[in-house]
Amino acid sequence: MILRATAGLLGLAGLTVAALYVGLAHAELRVTTGPPGSALHRLIAAFAAANARLHPRVRLLPVEEPSLAENARALEAGRVDLAVIRSDLPPPANGQTVAVLRRDVVAVVLPPHSPVTHLSQLAGRAVAIPAGPFQADDARLLALLLDYVGVPGTRVETLFLDPPALGRAIRDQRAAAIFAVGPIGPGQAVDAVAAVARASRGTPTLLAFDEGEAIHRRHPGLETIEVPVGAFRGQPAVPAASVDSLVVTYRLVVGRSMLDIVAAAVARSVFTARGMLTAATPFADQIEAPDLDEKAPLLPVHPGVAAYLNNGDQSFFDTSQNYLYLGGIGLSLAGSALALAVSHGHRRRVARERRLVKRLVALADQAGSADRAGLEALTRDLRRLVGAALRDETVTEGGAAALTGTAIAHAREAIQDRLGALDRGEIRSGRPGDRPGAGP
């Protein structure tokens, strides 16, 4: 009975898979934003709004954390499903990349004719850092780079200044350089170059990181880049010649436990919404797909995102269909296996019924020639068979119960008839054929 009920449930599940298809592709995901007031904060807020129009079945719930470092910890602790992180900060242990949101150049902007030609020469000087949501992260990065070239962070004074004050600090020689982390485009690095140019009335220069590849090997979150001529100013060009530098990446990451189907849907929304987001923030046009061929990446690409990028514009429903197809195969196999089990169980039940009925018929036949001792033994056998039949549910249901009851009644009646004949003296001994008065 239980097997038949389970088989019926599986069959019902298989029939309703198509109905569940539309409702399956649904998720509600918590995503961290950048610090309040930052461009990343605006980008994620705009992305959540755009995603609600593009993909209403994947709802994004922005969650504010005080810093990018806290974003990573929130993902690692499972408080959120997606997080915006910066690659030079400690990454979440469970993080996998969905998209690269932005690449920011690490720029050390120097005034004209600066004696500083190497990062180590900043020892004993002051460096200005643009004040803002990421100033603590930028100061940490500066300390990391100074440590790499053997300069203790305590030997370099850091000044957190608003944009208007940056140029004055250079002009008044309170700062030897500006350390800015920003994109090639509007942002901190461009603003720092403009501030130095106005204050010095000359052409700023960028400090080169000739050890960039070695720094990358020690700190994988820092990647190398060749900053092209005029990247931060066109006339006169800054830099005047291409310069080797470093970049940090801002990434949208998810936990590795996220289903491939959901991660693929998020990736599709990110890249589909890129054009719409540009109106909300100019940084949206820098969104790019992660490198699938990168060896030993700090934050590997999520398998669902990799499948989406390899297979082209595959919709969330297309991916759902794959899951449903596999699920349908699983249900079909499970149903077939259960049907075999039910069939095998049915054959065993029928065999038990036949053995019981044959034993009862044989017992009735034996009663016709048994003496009193034999009848007592047959009575004990009958009781044992009746008890076994009552304990076996398969022979106490439906037609099996009727057939078994008939066989039991037949055996009991045969024993009673033989016993009655012995009591009436119709049989002189236990041997068949012995009649009263019969002689040799």
From TrEMBL:
The keyword Signal does not apply. The chain crosses the membrane at residues 323-342. Gene3D superfamilies: Periplasmic binding protein-like II (3.40.190.10). The keyword Transport does not apply. This is C4-dicarboxylate ABC transporter substrate-binding protein. InterPro entries: TRAP_TAXI. Keywords: Membrane, Transmembrane, Transmembrane helix.
